[in-house]
Amino acid sequence: xxxxxxxxxxxxxxxxxxxxxxxxxxxxxxxxxxxxxxxxxxxxxxxxxxxxxxxxxxxxxxxxxxxxxxxxxxxxxx
Length: 78
Description:
By secondary structure, this protein is mainly β.
């Protein structure tokens, strides 16, 4: 799936991944390939991305939102 993690002034990550773990306001949750459409608010915490090359990338955020559909995930963060 294609993931973009964007801050107001920069792109933190853009690329293919097999999994993204996000700090939702109700707790941690994961999105994998072919996930149902989703929109969620995000709390302060760490985003974990498992890239297509099996690398793990971590991004600390203060808050944000995520929108995902048809294996295209957009994460807007502070």
